[in-house]
Write a structure and sequence with these properties.
heterodimer; A: alpha/beta; B: mainly alpha; MetI-like fold; two-stranded antiparallel ribbon; 2 strands
């Protein structure tokens, strides 16, 4: 890791099994405060599981995950003091379909931060402006395009003022022409000081936005490097093979 | 002439009015024939006194309408309890607690595999005295326990139909488990469940007639007592059936309207 910032997320020898299948193998990873880390790798390599272990949507079976210095053991859920501090953006948006956009954003702050309705909606509107859809506040999610929905989801996560944001393949279920608008919004967040961990296959985005790229395969971290070093001079054979596979067309185009 | 039957408006009139009228006509004819065969003497004019009575110019509910109120009271109260039992049972069945799942499963199998009438007798003669319950309480508890078992399956299906991602989204926003259910999950479940829940409410109203066996003066009991007094078997049973029908049809219509409004929202 970069070394100059204190670590906000740390995996220490973390393993996890789904039945007999080992999804995470002795993972060691430390992420600094404010860092933006992209995690890539073939499907089934454990990327999503890894970041879901940070906000405890999954629990691990061996080792320790530290979040904000709080050690979390196997099976341990997210302790109260960390709740709402780790936002997540999902591949399939997961907006609440029965609520307007505005209410999607205002609900959690009202219930958790004890904000009154007016204040929560005001905050919600600020964040909607920030992801450039202030004019859609009164619509329902299914009236929006995929790209707009994902931007709402990002704004919703931001409303809880998290200091960690996890992105689980945020553009994978979007039509190609909408990927850009979502990536732009994520890019704009890099100077917010929020620590970001993003699972994605968008290598151009990884190169431009991240401080570090982590490559996973078969549940282990194969390589972890600054984007230029990662893309221009990958050390590991497996990394090279992976990059060859997914960059082939981009390179020849 | 054949062409006439192909025209849309003719077909509409046929299917909306003439067909139902014909079927109703056949039914009425059958009842009349049956009555004629046993030399039944129709006395419909006596029935309105059983619906409403007027004494000295003041209108009051007759026995049938009084019975209807009792039926409605029991139905509404046990419907409320049914929803609570249904939800709790469904949550227990989906919970990670083995004891919870076992309890829910046991309750479900017990209720579904014994006759409602026997359940009512057991509650009335065995549990009632132990718990100090009167007839009405027993009746409400029994109906709710019965319908709650079926409703819990509807809740369970409704809960399982909510994508896992919805729960996770709520969790990742830091919503407490109870808030997550209250604001995110249940509203979606209820919306999906409205049609099958209406069916449960309708069955509940109909099943409530069974409480007549433990001397509650509901619509059915009132009807039976009137017949014992007046021997107006055909008129009273037909009237009682019509009243039940009016209540259940009103329920389904209201639910259909609510559903349409939500769909429009």
């Amino acid at each position: 890791m970069s070394g100059d910032t204190p670590s906000i997320i740390a995996f220490e020898d973390v393993s996890k099994w789904f039945g007999t299948f080992q999804v995470l193998r002795d993972v060691d990873l430390s992420i600094g405060e404010g860092e933006c880390v992209v995690i890539c790798g073939p499907s089934g390599s454990g990327k999503s599981t890894l970041i879901r272990c940070i906000n405890r949507l999954e629990t691990h079976d061996r080792g320790v995950v530290r979040v904000h210095g709080v050690p979390l053991g196997p099976g341990e859920r997210l302790p109260r003091e960390l709740r709402g501090k780790i936002g997540m953006v999902f591949q399939s948006f997961n907006l609440f379909p029965h609520m307007t956009v505005l209410r999607n954003l205002a609900l959690a702050p009202m219930r958790n931060l004890r904000m009154d309705k007016e204040k929560a909606e005001e905050t919600a509107l600020t964040y909607l402006e920030r992801v450039h859809i202030g004019d859609q506040a009164e619509k329902y999610p299914d009236q929006l395009s995929g790209g707009q929905q994902q931007r709402v989801a990002i704004a919703r996560a931001l409303c809880m003022q998290p200091d960690i944001l996890l992105f689980d393949e945020p553009t994978s279920s979007l039509d190609p022409e909408m990927i850009r608008e979502v990536l732009d919004v994520i890019f704009e967040l890099t100077d917010s000081g929020i620590t970001m961990v993003c699972v994605t296959h968008e290598m151009g985005f990884a190169r431009k936005v991240s401080d570090r790229v982590v490559f996973m395969d078969h549940g282990e971290i194969v390589e972890s490097a600054a984007p230029d070093a990662f893309f221009d001079a990958p050390r590991e054979e497996r990394t090279r093979a992976f990059l060859n596979q997914i960059l082939h067309y981009e390179a020849t185009a | 002439m054949i062409g006439l039957f192909r025209r849309p408006w003719v077909r509409r009139v046929l299917s909306n009015w003439i067909q139902p009228a014909a079927i109703a006509g056949i039914l009425v004819f059958a009842v009349m024939r049956g009555a004629e065969n046993i030399n039944y003497r129709w006395q419909w004019y006596r029935v309105d006194d059983f619906l409403f009575t007027s004494e000295n110019g003041a209108w009051a509910a007759g026995p049938l309408v009084q019975g209807l109120f009792v039926t409605l009271e029991i139905s509404v109260l046990s419907l409320f309890l049914t929803l609570v039992i249904g939800l709790v049972t469904a949550l227990l069945r989906l919970s990670s607690s083995m004891v919870g799942r076992g309890l829910a499963r046991g309750y479900l199998e017990l209720i579904r595999n014994t006759p409602l009438l026997i359940q009512l007798y057991v509650m009335y003669f065995v549990l009632g005295p132990i718990l100090g319950w009167g007839q009405t309480t027993t009746a409400i508890a029994c109906l709710a326990a019965f319908q709650g078992a079926y409703t819990s399956e509807i809740f369970r299906a409704g809960l399982r139909a909510i994508p896992r991602g919805q729960v996770e989204a709520g969790e990742s926003l830091g919503l407490k488990r109870l808030d997550n259910y209250r604001y995110v999950i249940l509203p979606q479940v209820l919306r999906n469940m409205l049609p099958p829940l209406t069916n449960e409410a309708v069955s509940l109203v109909k099943n409530s007639s069974i409480v007549s066996v433990i001397a509650i003066f509901d619509l059915t009991t009132q009807g039976r007592n009137l017949i014992a007094d007046t021997f107006l078997t055909f008129e009273i049973w037909l009237t009682v059936a019509a009243i039940y029908l009016a209540v259940t049809l009103a329920l389904s219509t209201a639910a259909a309207m609510a559903e349409r409004r939500r769909a429009g929202a």
